[in-house]
Write a structure and sequence with these properties.
By secondary structure, the chain is an alpha+beta fold.
């Protein structure tokens, strides 16, 4: 298994990097945040239609590129470096991954082409770690916060979920719910009766989260093994978040290193002081380790499915915590300017803070990793 990018992956990386630099730099991200928008719809259309990112990991038979999860990780790494707000994680990773993990061919044919083109935004309505939910289902103790009632042709869902990624923007929601037959995944239309969606104000302004309330809401049960599909979603979530965090951590390292060369104290750049050098070296070392783990997980996603759960959890553990430390160091090493709203450092810190708990933080991933290793 090679950890080096292929020629196609290098070309994809360069294309996304140029797009982020030209079309959605942090100044543009700030404008989206200031406007109170979850993401720039024009940028999302270009990411989906022009660059084809939404369909990267979706098979060609459903309108995607069939490029695999390693390619998606490359794209997410560049988007993470720019903190680009988009529904890519919710729609093209979580929702699409869950659909591909289930056996409902009708749902795949109805939803995946729209997800691949970016015209349809979908989400998987989870409040925690999908892996924990899947494990609970296998142990006969899964609890989702949503209950299903009624016959298969007239199912109604009731309950509340928060926070849900892009829950207020999704036109289709995949909702895990507990019913008479145990855990299943249900499809809910974004315009369904009894569905209430309230956007949440959170620390990280680059993540669009919502509170979802279902009150006797009509839904359709999706065929397939829900525990298996949610386990797949957990692994894909770990890979995707690790990729974003790897890119953002690299951006923190570059930003801080450049500042350390320019900021002068006591007649010399602060980068000449040993205390600053050590923290930058620690940041670089942690990034290298996390990047290697990310590449291993990205490769196993496409080539070694049996090893993927372990590798994805390891990548998340080795990036979520160190990214948070790097973001905090970025603020401190920038001195007084790093604590101001005008500087970009706080955006990375808030993103790192949310990433530590989103869809199951490093602690839950350590448990998952231990389980995969038989410990």
């Amino acid at each position: 298994m090679s950890l080096v990018l292929t020629g196609d992956e290098e070309a994809l990386r360069d294309s996304v990097r140029r797009f982020v630099a030209d079309r959605t730099p942090l100044t543009a991200v700030r404008q989206v945040i200031a406007a109170g928008e979850p993401y720039d719809t024009g940028i999302w259309k270009q990411l989906s239609a022009q660059l084809g990112l939404a369909g990267l990991a979706i098979p060609e038979e459903y309108g995607g590129a069939g490029a695999g999860h390693a390619a998606m990780a490359v794209a997410l790494q560049e988007l993470g470096a720019g903190l680009v707000p988009s529904p890519l994680l919710a729609s093209a990773v979580l929702a699409a991954g869950t659909l591909l993990g289930l056996d409902d061919m009708a749902a795949r044919e109805a939803l995946l082409p729209g997800i691949a083109s970016g015209e349809l935004v979908a989400t998987l309505a989870l409040t925690g770690a999908a892996g924990s939910l899947a494990a609970g289902s296998r142990a006969g103790a899964a609890e989702t916060g949503v209950r299903a009632a009624g016959a298969s042709g007239a199912v109604r869902l009731s309950g509340e979920l928060a926070p849900v990624l892009n829950g207020a923007q999704a036109s289709a929601l995949l909702v895990p719910a507990s019913g008479p037959d145990g855990l299943a995944v249900y499809l809910v239309d974004g315009a369904a009766s009894g569905l209430t969606r309230i956007p949440l104000t959170t620390a990280d302004p680059t993540r669009a989260l919502a509170r979802i309330t279902l009150a006797d809401t009509p839904a359709r049960v999706l065929a397939g093994n829900a525990a298996s599909a949610l386990g797949t979603a957990a692994d894909l979530a770990n890979l995707a978040l690790a990729a974003e965090q790897c890119g953002a951590m690299a951006a923190c390292l570059v930003m801080t290193t450049e500042y350390a060369k320019l900021r002068v104290a006591f007649g010399q750049p602060i980068g000449a002081f040993q205390g600053v050098k050590h923290r930058l070296a620690n940041m670089e070392t942690a990034w290298e380790l996390g990047h290697a783990a990310l590449r291993a997980a990205a490769r196993s996603a496409d080539e070694s499915p049996a090893e993927f759960p372990r590798d994805a959890a390891a990548a998340r553990v080795l990036l979520s915590g160190p990214y948070f430390t790097a973001a905090a160091d970025t603020i401190e090493l920038h001195g007084g300017i790093g604590f101001t709203w005008e500087h970009d450092a706080h955006l990375f810190y808030k993103n790192a803070l949310s990433g530590k708990v989103l869809l199951g933080g490093p602690g839950e991933q350590l448990d998952r990793l231990a389980s995969e290793l038989g410990m």
